[in-house]
């Protein structure tokens, strides 16, 4: 009887996992899509208000205040999510997506709406393909992930250096490198999120916070991929 009871418990646990995992993965993409929608609405809304644009981008105190708040939210969500409740973590994610939208309003001044829409769909297609690859591949992408993270650090350093050099040629090279890095990171992050959520037994708050952090990670991958592709295709236009 004890053996039969143990087998029954194992089957129930496996069944619970198989039910929880798809639901948690859906939450990752729903939260990510919701954040992208908020960013897009905020960006377009601010861009349509010359008064707001003037206030944000001509006032250094306001502009840098938003930038600093964004960095604080990134570190807060990524580093302190275990100490936050799920509603608070979700609220911080929404706040970050909103602030990102405010800064993104500037792209409507630099690029045409047609270019922005075209690049968004290119980004969505590229992101979707790489996320599917990361989800379904049997290959271990952890080694690639470490290389990509080192490359990302190099990209950030080179970008800071180019602020002073003001080299358009280097900026274009960095844009192509940025695309390659975030294409790879999308696949790696998807696999990593899948592996983390596969260990969750049910839909408790801790599991949902892992899903929320996964959504935040993929959101950042999408946004950065979009930025670098916009620089490439925007230049061509």
Give structural notes.
With 237 residues, this protein is mostly helical. It has nine helices and no strands. It is globular, with a radius of gyration of 20 Å.
Please supply descriptive tags for the structure shown above.
single chain, 237 residues, mainly alpha, 0% strand
Task: Annotate the secondary structure layout.
Blueprint: H1 2-47, H2 50-58, H3 60-80, H4 86-104, H5 107-110, H6 113-136, H7 142-165, H8 168-198, H9 205-236
Helix pairs in contact: 1-4, 1-8, 1-9, 3-4, 4-9, 6-8, 6-9, 7-8, 8-9
Short description:
With 237 residues, the chain is mostly helical. It is 89% helix and 0% strand.
Number of strands: 0
Low-confidence runs = 5-18
**β-strand amount:** under 5%
Q: Work out the helicity level.
A: over 70%
Task: Return the average pLDDT rounded to an integer.
Answer: 90
Number of helices: 9
Quaternary structure of the protein: single chain
Our Rg estimate from Cα atoms comes to 20 Å
Biggest beta-sheet profile: none
Q: Structural class, please?
A: mainly alpha
* Element-by-element helix/strand order: HHHHHHHHH
Net shape: globular
The rounded distance between the terminal residues' Cα atoms is: 73 Å
């Amino acid at each position: 009887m004890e053996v039969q009871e143990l087998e029954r418990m194992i089957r129930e646990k496996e069944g619970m996992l198989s039910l929880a995992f798809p639901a948690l993965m859906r939450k990752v993409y729903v939260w990510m899509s919701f954040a992208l929608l908020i960013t897009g609405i905020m960006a377009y809304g601010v861009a349509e208000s010359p008064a707001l644009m003037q206030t944000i981008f001509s006032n250094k105190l306001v502009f840098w205040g938003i930038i600093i708040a964004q960095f604080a939210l990134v570190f807060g969500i990524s580093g302190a999510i275990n100490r936050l409740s799920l509603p608070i973590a979700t609220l911080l994610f929404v706040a970050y997506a909103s602030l990102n939208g405010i800064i993104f309003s500037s792209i409507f001044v630099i690029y045409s709406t047609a270019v922005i829409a075209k690049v968004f769909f290119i980004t969505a297609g590229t992101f979707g393909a790489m996320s599917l690859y990361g989800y379904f591949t049997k290959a271990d992408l952890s080694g690639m992930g470490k290389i990509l993270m080192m490359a990302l650090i190099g990209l950030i350093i080179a970008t800071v250096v180019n602020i002073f050099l003001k080299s358009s040629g280097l900026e274009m090279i960095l844009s192509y490198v940025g695309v390659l890095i975030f294409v790879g990171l999308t696949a790696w992050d998807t696999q990593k999120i899948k592996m983390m959520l596969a260990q969750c037994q049910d839909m408790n708050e801790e599991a949902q916070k892992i899903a929320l952090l996964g959504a935040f990670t993929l959101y950042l991958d999408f946004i950065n991929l979009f930025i670098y592709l916009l620089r490439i295709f925007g230049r061509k236009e």
